[in-house]
Each structure stands twice: as C-alpha cells, then as structure tokens.
Amino acid sequence: MHEPGLSEAPPALATLEGGARVPYLGRVAVAEREAVIARFHPRRRAAGVAVPVTADGDTIVIGRRRSLDRNTVFPVAGVLPGAAAEPGEPAPLAALRALGQQIGVPAADLSDLRYDPYLELGRWCTEGGFRARGFLVRVPADIRSEVRFDEREPAAIGRVALDAVFAAALRMQSHLVTGLGHARQPLFAGWFESPTLELPDADGGPAWELSGLAGQMIANLRARYRTPGDLRADLARRRRCRARRAVGQASCDLVVRAQRTRHLMDGPLAIPRPPVLRAPTLSALLGQPALLVVDAALPLGGSSKARSLAGTLQGVLEARAERDGRSGCIPAQLFEGVTLITASTGSHARAVVALASWIEQAVGARPSCELFVSADITAVKLAALRRAGAVTICRDFNEATGAASAREAELARAGQRAVFLPCDPEPRLNVRFGVSGMDGAAGFATLLLDVLAEVRDGWAALGLDGPRLGELRIPTSGGATWAACTALHRDLTREEADDSTAGATLDAIAAVYDVAAPCLPRALAAGDPRHRTDVDWPRAINGLAQPQMAPGAWSLLGEAGAAGAPLYAVSGAAAGVAQALIALDTGLWPELAGAAAVGSRLLQETARGGQAFLSRLAGLVAAHPLARHADDLPRRVAALASCPAVSQAAEGPRGPGGAIAFVVSGAAHPQSAELVEDLIAAFEAAGDPSSPLGRCVRAAAAALPPERRSPTAAAGAGGRP
Fold first, then answer.
1. Which of 271, 322, 363, 577 lies deepest, with the highest CB count within 10 Å?
2. What mean pLDDT comes out for the span 148-152?
3. How far is residue 710's CA from residue 677's CA, in Å, rounded to a whole number?
C-alpha cells in the first residue's frame, strides 16, 4: 500500500522487485531534492566524483552504464566515475580511486602524480543517500592509451570535446529515478529534476546524455568558467604551479598533497606513523586521557621536521612528473650531486643531514650540506651538525634564512646545483630545481593524518571511549605545523557527511608558543604576519624562539584566519618538568621544545591549582617504578612554582574536555642509558619490543653515544625502525 498522499507509481516500476509498493514522489525540484532524499536516507554518507579533463584541455572522459545501479531505475547514457568514501578516505581520493577503477586506468592512484584532483566543483545529493563532492581531475592527454577495460564497470568509455560541453544547450529536465536501500531494496521513486544536456561523441560514436549528478557537475563547471578558453587557461596555470614555475595557492588541494606525502613516507622514505601511546602518569595527573604523539621517535632526524622534508621531496617529484609527463622517478636520484642548504634552529638541519645519509644509501653518493643555524642552538645539536657539514652561525633564525637563500643564489650563479630546503613554508621558488618553499606544508599536515589514523584504528587500545579527541596540542615557533594541520582539518571536516572521511573526530587543534618569544599570538592579533616580536633570548626555548611568524603559515590559514583557535603559552620551566614526565612514560627524554605541548598544560594546571597541583605531581612521580630516573624533579618543580609565566597562564583559554593529545616533536637531548636498559629489560620479559613504547625506547637507545651504550642498549638501538 502506498503512503497517504502519494500518487500511483508508473507501471514500469513493477519491473523492480517490490517496485509497485514503493512511495511515488511525483516531481521533485532541484531545490527540494536533498530534503526529500533525507526522509529515506537520514544518515548522510560521503562520496567523491571525478570530472576527468585531459591536461591539454581538449576533452572530458565519461562512461556509459551497462545496467541498473543503486541510484537509477533505467540505464543512463553518460556517467562520471564516483565512489563512496572508505573509512579514512577524503572525497577527492575517493574520486581518484573511482577514476582508476571505473574508467580502467590502473595508474590513477596516489603514486601516479600526473592524475591531479585539484578543484572542487560542487556537491550533489544522490538518490542512494550520498553527499557527493565533484572534483575536476587533470588526466594525461593520452589517457585512452592507458585504459584497461573492466567488464564489471561502465559498458562504454568515451570522450566529449570541451568546446562541445560549453556550446551544448543546458536545460532542466525531470528523470524517473528510484532510490535503493539495503540489499538493493527500492525505497522511493519519482521524477527528479536535474541539469541535462546532450553531447556529441568526440570520436563519432552515439551522442551522450548527461543528467543527474553528471549534469550538475557539468553545469557547475560551466558556471565557474565562462568559456572553454577560461578553463584551458586555468589548466595551464595549474600546470605551471605543479611544475614549480609559478607560486600557487598555499592551501590548494592540501588534502591530496598530504595524502601523497604520507604515501611517500610509507614507501621509499620508510617513515612510519609516530608512536602514539597513552601516558599513564600524565593521565592520572590531569584526570583525563592523555596521549603522547612521539614524533621524536621518527627516522630522518628524530623530529617533526622529517615531515617537512618529506613534503618537499614530494613536491620535487610532482614537479618532475609535470615537466616530464611521466611519473615514477626514484626520489634519491633527483638529489645526486646537489648541495643541500638549509636554515634552522637545529632540528631541521639534523633532518637535512639525515636526508643526505638516506640519499647516500640509495645512490652511493652523499650530497654536501651547508647549514645556517641560529645562535641559540644547543650544544648537543651543534656538535652533531659540525660532524656532518659546514655550519654557519647566524644571529637568529631570520638571519639564517636570508643567508641560506643568498648562498643558494650564489651557487646557482656559479653553475652549481644547489637547493635551499626551508624549515618553514614560505612563498619561495627554485624554478631550476623545481622546489617550492610551500611544499613542506603538506608534510607538516601528515601529522594530523597520522593522529587521526591512530585514533581511528586504535582508540580501544589507547583506552578511549571512541575514536574521538578533544584537543591536539602542537608546539610551534612560527606556526607552520599548526597552520598546516589546521588548514587540513578544515578541509577534512567540510565533508558534511555522518561517516566522517577522517574516520575519527577531533574538536580542536591548539598551538603552543614560547612565552619568551610570542611572535605567533602577536602577529595574529596584529593581523600582520610580518609583525616582529622581541625575543627574551636568555629565557627562550631553542626551537620555539623566533621573532616573526612563518611566512607561509598565514597563507595556509587563509581568509578564515585563526579565529577561535586556542593558543597556549609555555615556559622553559614548565617544559623542564614535562621532560621528566614524558621520559617516565616513554623512556625518551625530549628536548625542551619537544616537551612544550605537555609543558603548556602543566603551566595551566599550576596556575589553577598552585602548590596542591605540584604536590600531587611530585607524589605521582615518587610512586612511579622508574622514579629514580627523575631524581632532579624537585629542582624542576621549584623552578616551575616560581615561574612568572604562571600568572599569564591563569588567564589563558581552557581547552575542551575529552582525551587530549600532545605532540612530542623532538629529542635532541642527552638520553639516559640506565632508563633505556631498565625498559628494554621489561620489554624482553613482556615480549613486546615493537609496541609504541618499545619504539620510543629504541629511539632513545639509538640517540645514545656509542661509548655509553651497553650491549643491551646497543641491541635495542639496532632494532629502531
């Protein structure tokens, strides 16, 4: 029996099992579409759709359905490749995957950089309940030579000329469709209005009709570009940007570039996700689940700067693919015979030196390194760098950046291959080599991808109630890592679907800055990224102290800026206490900057709880089975108690509830051989050396000088990933 008030369904619906009994909706206008479909599909699901346009701007690739699918009653002439997003898969990557599977292009995945889903064209609610996002995807001009036809996919694949797409009459027309639910059971039927157009086949075949989702995406394309010439000009601009011959928009297609950088890290660079572990001492102290994201255990330098270099390397590969028209270069070969130049407060320079070692292992020749560092660099970092390359000490990070850039230009004028690998994103191009200063942003954004993936896949093991974090705190000097993760988070949360493509929920991303070098909050307050802040150098934390915001961070934040983003201060004294707590929970002593995120929360709690909080902290540490390794904690706590920054922290924002994750970003600090040995012995007894905690301890063992390694610690260091 039909629902009251609904018209009788057409006889054709009887051809579907149960079709004669489904609600018949009559005519549904485009403006009513989403509300009507939501009655039958209350749970929104995400999907991605590709509008494949050849890189030369000549044709659009489409397909023809072979039979009834879950969205339509009768065969539809022309369709675009699309797919439901899998857990953890953003919509543009679902569109890319669908292009590969449904058009039959095996290479259309993250590894083939010629396939470029870079521009969102709009959204459409399908009769199957999907909130589909359409993306313009640049594909190779000779894509037809790469097609491997799959009989399970569209019945035909063809091309329509771009000029014809813009010349065709576009009309609103109603089409009889049905929505199918679980087990392909019909849920409703009706005449749904959509943009419709007929297009001649570019190769002389039968004409194509595009309607529904495909019609809407073509309508959106025509609304964005008035003429095919406008679209071709934009494609040419995009090609110049990807070839690193022009500066592109900072946050454009950050989702795809971050995912591709993560793919590179999983592959040739062999940089796994960081260990993420629940910190029992810290959780008990704060009264909420506290996680540590230990970037300090990453290969390629032992800090978050490994991510920036991965993003830069991915950008070089993308530029080479765009220039050569082919993908698949061996990354290390691109840097043979090249002088690597960088500016750093220490950690980024260590990562560049590690990159040089990786290149040497891959191709047998080590690039030379020229390192420009700020005068506040720690003795530990400086000693390691001087063993690896030429080091020039500059007054501060800004002076080091200028000197490194000048050196790159000097070597280029002399005909030598040299590339400046910036620490923070900035709008700088090396056109000859194909490097953009903004490429590192995609690498920094992989931090968010890794955290969401760990929470999505391991929330139960982490002791969480579900795949959700209240807050992620990121230590930062000029705001680069925080801005990249914030920009990516905004893109991921734009899906507007109930099955979040991130696979996990994060309420807030917070920046942690050094109270002695508050360039980030002051630049944001002034609305000027060039705003210069005086640094209290004697009290500043190496790695967090610089006088100006990172040039590219402002661009990444875009028009939305940092409105509502929590910013927390940290002091050296608070970071010093955090060092000890992190070491007890991980076995790894971070540097002060690496402990800053935890330190910011300790500073807040000290401001609110005073001596009572510090007494509870001391009691928890005294009861820890490894307390003997933190025997100087009373001195550290006393320094925190008398820290002037405590009063400032009392006025700061209060973070959201729920679990909180702290990024431990670097470990250029003397490690404790005794602590390493105690924990390695515990792992051997438990038989779990590959756990997140085990990885942290192995990283600490690897950081010990050879003369301080016992046989046990040496064996632990050899197992570092």
1. 577
2. 64
3. 8
pLDDT exceeding 70 applies to what percent of the chain?
A: 88
Q: Judging by DSSP bridges, how do beta strands 418-420 and 339-344 pair with one another?
A: parallel
C-alpha atoms less than 13 angstroms from C-alpha of 647 in its C-beta half-sphere:
2
Please write down the long-range contacts of 703-710, taking CB distance under 8 Å and 24 or more positions apart: 703/302, 703/667, 703/671, 704/671, 704/673, 704/676, 708/673, 709/673, 710/673, 710/677
* Backbone angles phi and psi of 493, in degrees to 5: -90, 5
Residue 716's SS3 state is helix
3-state secondary structure 57-96: CCEEEEEECCCCECCECCCCCEECCEEECCCCCCHHHHHH
Copy the structure tokens of residue 110: 């993250």
In the structure encoding, which two tokens stand for residue 386, read together? 């001087």
pLDDT tens per residue across span 229-279: 999 999 999 999 999 888 776 566 899 999 999 999 999 999 999 999 999
Instruction: Return the closest-CA partner of residue 78 out of 200, 227, 253.
Output: 200
Whole-angstrom Cα distance, residue 545 to residue 541?
A: 6
Number of domains in the chain: 2
Contact 374, 424 (CB under 8 A): no
285 in the same domain as 238: no
**What pLDDT score does 298 carry?**
94
With contact defined as beta carbons under 8 Å apart, do 692 and 275 qualify? yes
Same structural domain, 276 and 127: no
**Measured distance CA(717)–CA(703) in Å, rounded:** 8
Q: Does residue 75 carry a pLDDT above 50?
A: no
Which CATH number is 22's domain given? Answer: 3.90.79.10
- Quote the domain boundaries for residue 579: 272-670
Q: Would you call 413 helix, strand, or coil by DSSP?
A: helix
* Sheet strands (E) in 485-579: 505-514, 567-570
How deeply is 287 buried, as exposed, middle or buried, from its count of CB atoms within 10 A (0-12, 13-18, 19+)? exposed
What pLDDT was estimated at residue 160?
94
Q: Are residues 233 and 324 in the same domain?
A: no
pLDDT tens digits, one per residue of 399-422: 999 999 999 999 999 999 999 999
CB within 8 A of 432, min separation 6: which ones?
A: 412
* HSE-up of residue 316 (Cα within 13 Å, Cβ side): 22
Residues 132 and 194 in one domain: yes
Q: Is 36 exposed, middle or buried (0-12, 13-18, 19+ CB in 10 A)?
A: middle
* DSSP code at position 436: E
d(CA 533, CA 522) in angstroms, rounded, equals: 7
**Structure pTM?**
0.91
Would residue 323 count as lying in a domain? yes
Residue 290 domain-assigned (yes or no): yes
